[in-house]
Specification:
This protein is α/β, with parallel strands linked by helices. The chain has helices at residues 15-28, 75-81; strands at residues 4-5, 11-13, 35-41, 47-53, 61-66, 69-74, 84-90, 95-100, 104-107, 113-116. It has one domain (4-104): HesB-like domain (Hypothetical Protein Aq_1857, Chain: A, Sandwich), CATH 2.60.300.12. Helices cover 18% and strands 44% of the residues. The longest helix has 14 residues, at 15-28.
Length: 117
């Protein structure tokens, strides 16, 4: 079985997120490695976001491309992440990726975990 290829993104990327992902790919030498986004059980709100560069693509994964970055999301995560936007912020008090998730009913103060309805 092959992965599901789609043109409709599950998670969108802001311009700042694209720039940072490409910078990380260049630093780590992972320019051709897909960027996996997902969720896992845990965190103070119930679910935690995950992201990493991952060559291990399975039949349950959906893949698509944004600005030359191959994105991978597994089926379970897609349910929780549909319509989410990944942003990257660099301010005096915080630097890092942030998830703007319309499915999140509540999230913890650090923004790394969330719960849905």
């Amino acid at each position: 079985m092959s992965t599901v290829e789609t043109t409709a993104p599950i998670v969108g990327l802001t311009e700042d997120a694209v720039v940072e992902i490409k910078r990380l790919q260049q630093i780590q030498g992972t320019e051709e490695v897909p960027f996996r986004l997902g969720v896992k059980d845990g965190g103070c709100s119930g679910l935690s976001y995950t992201m990493n560069f991952d060559n291990n693509i399975t039949a349950e994964d959906t893949t698509y491309e944004i600005a030359g970055i191959k994105i991978v999301v597994d089926q379970k995560s897609a349910t929780y992440l549909q319509g989410t936007t990944l942003d990257y912020k660099k301010t005096l008090v915080m630097t890092g990726f942030t998830f703007i998730n319309p499915n999140a009913e509540k999230s913890c103060g650090c923004g790394e975990s969330f719960a849905t309805k």
